């Protein structure tokens, strides 16, 4: 099922990107980009272009002696994307910093005894150094890393027992590669690297001892070598609407040495409709597929674990079977089924927005 979803997604993306690239190759924007670039290569001027977009929203529901029932709810959510671009002759330095964080709590009574849960947590940075050419492509060196700010938990029992799933800088996903940076037009950029190293680093001792995110138990580092591609599309006036902006950032990685057919995917989408100068409606989505990340499985209610079973229908127990790991157990030691899965997070945010250039 996972592979079916993955191939359907890649097919859709392939059709979209091919059609967009064909349109870009024959468009006036492509020729204009090359002409402007040629002028910059022949003069001694420096060019700085910076942009930042910040969103913040909150949501609250309060019920007091409410006969119809329901739950109290409180959420805060923030997102910031920043771009810094420097060009001088044949040198091009492009940077991106993306941050998002959300916390929420819900309760049938007061919030005093209810813990805060994070429902979004991301810190990502990309830095790209390029030697420019008089064509639509440049020779580039890319560095990217992705991590999170704080602890994450699956259940309240995990939180009470400090059985966290991730932590600040655990994991970190650094990527270093060299390849071609292709500017199809002012909106679409593709980076292709046939020589890329992708690492997984787990600095937290308790997590590294267990062995998570594809890192062996007792180790803190794992490295892969493979093919990497990044496709970035940004448009500030989608469909000629100055209030509608769209951003899609897709990354693909294939490990040459271990199951190259399993493609790691990260895909961020951001759609914003500006209602007024400081008020907007934002949709943000983030998708991850990494076959090295084992995710514990639960029923549709999100609370009932799906356990590992023998052929006779009995359940594996870590203390009696010496099977499984310390990370995906219930309170009685039974092993919760885990495996690679398509991860997707999305949220709608109606709130304040600030744009800086």
Keywords:
single chain; 357 residues; two-stranded antiparallel ribbon; twelve-stranded antiparallel beta barrel; disordered N terminus; globular; 5 helices; Outer membrane phospholipase (ompla), Chain C; alpha+beta
Largest sheet: 12 strands, antiparallel, barrel
Strand ordering within the main sheet: 1-2-3-4-5-6-7-8-9-10-11-14
Low-confidence stretches: 1-8, 321-326
Helix content: 10-25%
CATH topology: Outer membrane phospholipase (ompla), Chain C
Estimate the strand proportion. Answer: over 45%
Q: Helices and strands: which structural class?
A: alpha+beta
- Named at the architecture level, the CATH assignment is Beta Barrel
State the domain count: 1
Helix and strand run: HHEEEEEHEEHEEEEEHEE
- Gross morphology is globular
Number of helices: 5
How many distinct beta strands? 14
Q: Average pLDDT across residues?
A: 84
At the first level of CATH, the class is Mainly Beta
Topology overview:
Blueprint: H1 2-25, H2 28-42, E1 46-61, E2 72-88, E3 91-107, E4 117-131, E5 137-147, H3 156-160, E6 173-183, E7 188-201, H4 205-210, E8 221-235, E9 244-255, E10 263-276, E11 279-289, E12 295-296, H5 318-321, E13 338-339, E14 343-356
Antiparallel strand pairs: 1-2, 1-14, 2-3, 3-4, 4-5, 5-6, 6-7, 7-8, 8-9, 9-10, 10-11, 11-14, 12-13
